[in-house]
Design brief:
3 helices, 2 domains
């Protein structure tokens, strides 16, 4: 069961899996057996975001992270993300007005291309 888990199952998970297949062992017994067999749970590391040292040269930072806007339609922001729709990934483009923080435009597509962004706008 440890190998089937991709070597990621720990003693608690293995104990639960063993109990469901009619092997009732205590948690400390499973831990001891894992130690004797030199089985060590490997959990995937957490995701770290890349940080950049310098801003993009072609796109200036007009807002400088000051998102408090005094009137509607002065600044719009947008982003693209992907969503699992049950059978495939779809891409969602959103445009929001920073004043009211409400969505003013959106579009979905099978690919994250220029048309998706234009349709969102």
């Amino acid at each position: 069961m440890f190998r089937l888990s991709g070597e990621s199952a720990g003693s608690r998970t293995l104990r639960t899996q063993l109990a469901s297949s009619e092997y009732h062992l205590g948690l400390y017994t499973v831990r001891r057996m894992m130690k004797e067999l030199e089985l060590e749970s490997c959990q995937p590391s957490s995701h770290t975001y890349k940080t950049v040292e310098q801003a993009h040269v072609e796109i200036s930072n007009i807002l400088k992270r000051q998102f408090d806007v005094s009137a509607p339609n002065l600044f719009w922001c947008g982003d693209i993300t992907y969503v699992w729709t049950g059978s495939a990934w779809s891409y969602l483009a959103l445009v929001i007005d920073l004043y009211g923080r409400n969505v003013i435009g959106w579009a979905m597509s099978d690919s994250p291309d220029t048309n998706l962004t234009k349709n969102g706008l």
